Amino acid sequence: MSGFVSFVSAGPGDPELLTLKAVNRLRVADVVLYDDLASGAILDHAREGARLVSVGKRAGRPSAKQEHVSRLLVDYAATGAAVVRLKSGDAGMFGRLEEEIEALRTAGISYEIIPGVTAASAAAAVAGIPLTRRHTSRRVQFITGADVRGELPEDLNWAALTDPNSTTAVYMGKRTFPALAVKLIERGLSPDTPALLAESIGHADQRFVRTTIATLAEQLSHECVTATAIILFGSLTAEEP
Asked: What CA–CA distance (Å, rounded) separates 79 from 129?
C-alpha cells in the first residue's frame, strides 16, 4: 500500500492563521510529523487517535536529522497512512521542503503542498506596515541568514541587498546579522537604514524592536540567541502603525 503526504503550512504559530485546507488535512490525518514551531494549539486540530511525532529542528539544540525525517515520511506513507508533514510558516520558505519531496518521489509516494503565511508577511501585518510601496519600496526579497554551516552565506546578492528601494526579510539571521550589517554598510547601505526585529510572531510572547541596522547589529552581537525571529530592513520598517 502507498499512502499520501500533505505538506501543511502552519503559519507563524497563531492557529487562526491556518487555512481551511490545512485544518481539513489535520482533521483526517493518521500521522502528523510536526515542527517545534508548528505545535501547541495548532495540533488541537488533529483528529483524536492520530499519531503525533515531533521532528523539529532548532538551532543550537538537539534536533531530528533531515535524513531521519525523510525516512519517517516514507515509512509512514508506505503503510497506506494519510500523513501530514506540518511545517512552520510557509512550507516552501527555507524549510528543507525539497529534500523531503525528493525522498517521496524516489519512493513513488504522492504528495501535495498547502501554502501558508510566511514569517515576513506575519511580522509586517502585526507591525502594521506593508512590505511594498509603489514608489519607495518596489521589491521585497527573502533571504536566509544562515548557510548549511550556520554561517552567513558568502554568495548573497549585495547589489540587491543594498538597494534603498527594497524591503528585505532575513530568515534565521539573528546570530549572523552583525556580520551581515557590516558587509551591507561597507557596500554603501546607510547604517541608519530602518530595521525591525520581530520575535516569536503569532505567540503570546511576541516582541518587536524598531531600530536601525547598525544599532540592531550592535544589540544582537551581545544578545544570546534563543527566541525565533525574523529581521526586516528597508524604509518601510520605520513606520509606526
From this structure: 46
Q: Could you say which of 14, 21, 30, 35 is catalytic? A: 35
- What gap in Å lies between CA 117 and CA 2, rounded to an integer? 30
Spell out a b/e string for 164-192, using b for 16 or more CB atoms within 10 Å of the CB, else e: eebbbbbbbbbbbbbebbeebbeeebeee
Please say whether the beta carbons of 210 and 238 come within 8 A: yes
Whether residues 101 and 123 fall in one domain: no
| pLDDT by residue, tens only, the chain of 241 residues | 579 999 999 999 899 999 999 999 999 999 999 998 777 899 999 999 999 999 976 555 556 788 999 999 999 999 999 999 999 999 999 989 999 999 999 999 999 999 999 999 999 999 999 999 888 888 999 999 998 888 999 999 999 999 988 999 999 999 999 999 999 999 999 999 999 999 988 788 889 999 999 999 999 998 876 778 999 999 888 766 5
User: Are residue 16 and residue 127 in the same domain, yes or no?
Assistant: no
Question: Which residue's C-alpha cell is 539571521?
Answer: 173
Q: Are residues 53 and 142 in the same domain?
A: no
Q: Is 205 a catalytic residue?
A: no
**57 given a catalytic annotation:** yes
* Residue after which a domain boundary falls, among 87, 114, 141: 114
Query: Which candidate in 57, 147, 163, 183 is catalytic?
Result: 57
